[in-house]
Amino acid sequence: MKALAPHEQRVFEEREELRGKIVKLHRFLKSEKVEKLPPEDLRLLQEQAKLMWLYLKVLNERIALFGGAA
Predict the structure, then answer these.
(1) Tens place of pLDDT for every residue, the chain, 70 residues?
(2) How far is CA 14 from CA 18, 22, 66, in A?
(3) Which of 8, 44, 54, 61 is a good FRET partner for 14, with 20 to 30 A between their CA atoms?
(4) 36-58 burial, b for 16+ CB within 10 Å, e for fewer?
């Protein structure tokens, strides 16, 4: 794999940070704690999770464009 340009390295780091946040949110949404949330909060967290997955997809596509492993 070629050496990464600084902006490419930042995209990799951003992806890893986002993956960690997605895992934490997913665990929370599968926990019993979620049952105590008001319905609107739950809806918004579910929407946030969907958008985070979309954001991850975009980061993977960007990484693929500069020859990185998606």
Answers:
(1) 578 899 999 999 999 999 999 999 999 999 999 999 999 999 999 999 999 999 999 999 999 999 855 5
(2) 6, 12, 15
(3) 44
(4) eeeeeeeeeeeeebeebeeebee
67 DSSP 8-state letter: T
The position carrying tokens 């986002």 is 18
Q: Write the DSSP string, 5-30.
A: PHHHHHHHHHHHHHHHHHHHHHHHHT
Q: How many CA atoms lie within 13 A of 47 on its CB side?
A: 6
